[in-house]
Specification:
Pathway: Amino-acid biosynthesis; L-serine biosynthesis; L-serine from 3-phospho-D-glycerate: step 1/3. With 592 residues, this protein is of the alpha/beta class. It contains 19 helices and 23 strands. Helix 2 runs parallel beside helix 14. The longest helix is centred in the middle third of the chain and has 23 residues. The radius of gyration is 30 Å and the shape is elongated. Bound molecules: nicotinamide-adenine-dinucleotide and 3-phosphoglyceric acid (3PG). 3-phosphoglyceric acid binds next to loops.
Length: 592
């Protein structure tokens, strides 16, 4: 048995999860919805209560109908920020598109009721993810259903720009016939740089190749083989800028991509480049683009998205002769909107039911089969956390916790994020009013100064079970049950899953065996005959059912720890009577 790795708690908030994509078939066919994860009740609404879902922007009817099968649905569009904040405390879920800013104030106004925000689309830049995470609110999006629509719109703008379609249309409608003015440029043989080779970018690339273009792409995170598979070369930002005749933007808006196209970038592009933006307005410095258009460095731009939407009337870019604009229509096809509505409704209903979302933005995505396998360990880790913290003597602040996972599997075959979150939940919830879930566990731990270290023990044997045992240790504290302190000087509890049920198997240095359900009495006594009977009598007089009892001792006649699992809570009086048995040296009652 060897300890092969240990590491500190890493805070991984704001994780964007992308799903895979395939070829150019209609979007619903291309992107099979992710398999449904099995249930894990981390976000579930109060039992029996029908949740309320606020739909703050119009989504497809199919999604609304699906939501109505499970929840009260309030479709209130065009709410002001104040109205949204007022309504939100009455809602369990909120669904928005890109037009609603889900700010920190929204989460604060929710007073803890809001459990899930569903973004009916891809971009989550209008949702304050940090605030959502801090408030334990899951954010899910619908990342796949509008890909084709967005790619088609990118191509529509590319071709429109190359042939001055919008300008010529306006000219004819103004009674003119300017055939010489609107001579376009050919696409065949021209170089298109796709910036952001994700779902939309790769579909744009595929289509542009069909139009005879040379396609290069820049994406620091995209695998080269995926690009190669469709005949696209991944290049550096510099190469993309300096060689492209057309640039099409498809990256998300993040702090790293904000104003990625600015005066400095425009100074490096090929003179006369044409730019298409169907991603987010904020990735371009709009003032800089205006200057580049005025100077002729950029010949034309086509913009579906703007820093401020809708853009102000006087926006010079919108009015520019060489700019073609659409009002954020990338995702707006009947088919995409139906798909997005269903995708987001399923995700929101799933999250409200307590299922782990496959499209979670701010929580680890745990595949269904992994979740199924881990679920008894999820219960075990939470209960070990609960027991350990209840063993701490009042006044000792819990700061250093070590979780040890003993497994026959290598570290790469065991994802412990879920288990770590559950230990944190178990440690914090019994001693605070904070609600901890998979979304906010790391944040809450950090906020409370809890340093949770994880350690792996790799055991020999066949890796059928994910884990053999799990140990939770709290260092630098005193215990109200001295026997819970192991030789290492830490409060130590250890458990394992037996017949699918979590069991406590060690307290301090004492081996015990009790099923972790109901509540537990731990009592240390000097080992002698008759104690079990005496304790049993006191409990039976209370009419409380004992579901498990075990005694672990150092050696015959020495000290022993008796663990009694109870279906209900015994009275204080009964506990006092057990404590008064002469051989009993210490006693603690723990709620699971
Ligand atoms: N106009 C619309 O209506 C519309 C519709 C759909 C999507 N979008 C927007 O398009 C964008 C892409 O959507 P998607 O579904 O393809 O997302 P995606 O997550 O599949 O792809 C985004 C890609 O951008 C890459 N990227 C990240 N940082 C980058 C950087 N600095 N430089 C280059 N590439 C970078 C990522 O690696 C990823 O491959 C999002 O911003 C989304 O909101 C707009
Ligand atoms: O990010 C997206 O999915 C698109 O920008 C679509 O946004 P919308 O839902 O507001 O059309």
């Amino acid at each position: 048995m060897s300890v092969i790795s240990s590491w500190n708690l890493t805070i991984s908030l704001n994780t964007t999860i992308s799903l895979s994509w395939r070829s150019s078939l209609p979007s619903r066919a291309i992107f099979p919805r992710p398999k449904k994860p099995k249930t894990l009740v981390v976000l579930a609404t109060a039992l029996g209560a029908k949740p309320t879902v606020l739909v703050a922007e119009k989504i497809g009817d199919a999604g609304i109908q699906l939501l109505k099968t499970f929840a009260n649905v309030d479709c209130s569009y065009n709410l002001s920020p104040e109205e949204l904040c007022t309504k939100i405390s009455l809602c369990d879920a909120l669904i928005v598109r890109s037009g609603t800013k889900v700010t920190r104030e929204v989460f604060e106004s929710a007073m803890g009721r809001l459990k899930v925000v569903g973004r009916a689309g891809v971009g989550i830049d209008n949702v304050d993810i940090s605030a959502a995470t801090e408030h334990g609110c899951l954010v899910v999006n619908a990342p796949t259903a509008n890909t084709i629509a967005a790619a088609d719109h990118g191509i529509a703008l590319l071709t429109a720009v190359s042939r001055n379609v919008a300008q010529a249309d306006a000219s004819v409608k103004a009674g003119k016939w300017e055939r010489n003015k609107y001579v376009g440029v050919s696409l065949v043989g021209k170089t298109l740089a796709v910036m952001g080779f994700g779902k939309v970018g790769s579909e744009v690339a595929r289509r542009a190749k069909g139009l005879g273009m040379q396609v290069i792409a820049h994406d620091p995170y995209a695998p080269a083989d995926r690009a190669r598979a469709i005949g696209v070369e991944l290049v550096s930002f510099e190469e993309a800028l300096t060689t492209a005749d057309f640039i099409s933007l498809h990256m998300p808006l993040t702090p790293a991509t904000s104003k990625m196209f600015n005066d400095e970038t425009f100074s490096r592009v090929k003179k006369g480049v044409r730019i298409i933006n169907v991603a987010r307005g904020g990735v371009i410095d709009e003032e800089a683009l205006l200057r580049a258009l005025d100077s002729g460095v950029v010949a034309q731009a086509a913009l579906d998205v703007f820093t401020e939407e809708p853009p102000p009337q006087e926006n010079k870019l919108v009015r520019h002769e060489n700019v073609t604009v659409t009002p954020h229509l990338g995702a707006s096809t009947t088919e995409a909107q139906e798909g997005v509505a269903l995708e987001i409704a399923e995700a929101v209903v799933g999250a409200l039911r307590g299922e782990l979302a496959a499209t979670a933005v701010n929580a680890p995505m745990v595949p269904a089969e992994v979740l199924l396998e881990l679920s008894p360990y999820v219960a075990l880790t939470e209960k070990l956390g609960r027991l350990a913290v209840q063993l701490v003597a009042g006044g000792s602040g819990v700061k250093f916790v070590k979780v040890t996972y003993a497994s026959t599997r290598g570290p790469d075959d065991l994802d412990t994020r879920l288990l770590r979150a559950m230990v944190t939940k178990g440690l914090i919830e019994p001693v605070s009013s904070v609600f901890v879930n998979l979304v906010n566990a790391d944040f809450i731990a950090k906020q409370r100064g809890l340093r949770l270290t994880e350690e792996r023990i790799v055991l020999d044997g066949s890796p059928e079970k994910p884990l053999e045992f799990i140990q939770v240790r709290i260092a630098n504290v005193e215990s109200k049950f001295v026997s819970a302190i192991s030789n290492s000087g830490e409060i130590t509890v250890e458990g394992r899953v037996k017949d699918g049920k979590p069991h406590l198997t060690k307290v301090g240095s004492f081996g015990v065996d009790v099923s972790l359900e109901g509540s537990i009495v731990l009592c240390r006594q000097s080992d002698q005959p008759g104690i079990i009977g005496k304790v049993g009598n006191i409990i039976s007089e209370e009419n409380v059912n004992v579901n498990f009892m075990s005694v672990g001792r150092i050696a015959p006649g020495k000290q022993a720890v008796m663990t009694i699992g109870l279906d209900e809570e015994p009275s204080r009086d009964a506990l006092k009577k057990i404590g008064e048995i002469t051989a009993v040296e210490e006693l603690v009652f723990l709620k699971l």
